[in-house]
């Protein structure tokens, strides 16, 4: 038997592990009304640094696959356990909580995460645990799931294409079943969904990047929908209008020309809905001027043309129903993307206020065709955007084009693609980009609480 003897193994390892940081990206989940009802958090696990052999009595001939109770038995945690602990620690941070904007989070679970006692630091009402189809189900795991289920943690069977042994063993504890309808056998779907609905399971359709996929899933009785189908041009006909969009375009064109207060006042008076929103915005806590704003002219002066312009740009994406902005998926996506672009370009060399403004515009108008239909190019021409912004959106040119590719990779949780893009955007790193994505999501989600975000729509 070979041993290596050294002293006090635990303390240095704990300190090192505090430096392990997981990264997270959000993907929206919608209900049958097309409103946000949750986010899946796509996780980039931290990479463990190369380390020398630990200074510890270790039986090198023993089975290297420690069982799930190894940490409790006093053994050093395995690499997988250290990664699991880092992910759980990251999920408890305030930046993740802020980015969820009050919605529940769906997170992929590994066996090591399920067995780590730190998992119970996650509030059961805020997190749903997704169980992968390749999870090895044995008596020990089954007992752990029963224990967590008894403590009101909720489980989702993930990536289901057709029932198998793992599916059958875990089904009694699952609140929801997630099915990628583009991968599941089409002939099996009607029967599978019917049986699961009869069993009282919530059905989540994933991989929905086209309107036709969404309509198929809706027709099959799915309850939740994950994918970016709502940000595609073909959804334009299904979105209702809160204020006439031609009025918003007229206002944007006026704002682009450095208008006087009198000109703005005259344009806004033609649009009572816009006046109502502006008065609310001017009287919000973030813009308070010491007394209640009662006239349109006061509201314009209190708010400022820059804020009015941003508010109008984002209002283009608002659903026409009586919906809080933090529940409107298209507006939230536009606001988050625009704010991310603004934050990210400020980290690049020689970027000033003008570049930040251009980055915000690039993000906010990068899928404006989802609102108006028609070609993206023709809509951008109507908006009279500058050539660098149009080139970034249409041809992905320049730093703005790279940042647009970056935020799209982040939205899809494509971590390898993100790493390649960050290599071209030094000093930006993947970890920083993910942090900015969470910060941008939190900013977009304060719609009805602060003038630092947007303003609530209550037509």
Walk me through this protein's architecture.
- The chain is of the alpha/beta class and 459 residues long.
- It has two domains: 10-227, EAL domain (TIM Barrel, Alpha-Beta Barrel), CATH 3.20.20.450; 237-459, Hypothetical protein af1432 (Orthogonal Bundle).
- 45% of the residues lie in helices and 10% in strands.
- It has an eight-stranded mixed beta barrel, surrounded by four helices.
- Helix 11 (272-282) crosses helix 12.
- 37% of the residues are buried.
- Mean pLDDT is 83; it is low at 1-11, 55-67 and 448-459.
Supply the key terms.
459 residues, alpha/beta, TIM Barrel, Hypothetical protein af1432, 2 domains, eight-stranded mixed β-barrel, 21 helices, disordered N terminus, EAL_dom, EAL domain-containing protein, dGMP_Pdiesterase_EAL/HD-GYP
CATH class of the largest domain: Mainly Alpha
Order of helices and strands: HEEHHEHEHEHEHEHEHHHHHHHHHHHHH
As residue ranges, the low-confidence spans are 1-11, 55-67, 448-459
Shape designation: globular
Indicate how many domains the architecture comprises: 2
Query: DSSP helix count?
Result: 21
CATH architecture of the largest domain: Orthogonal Bundle
Could you give the distance between the termini? 76 Å
Number of strands: 8
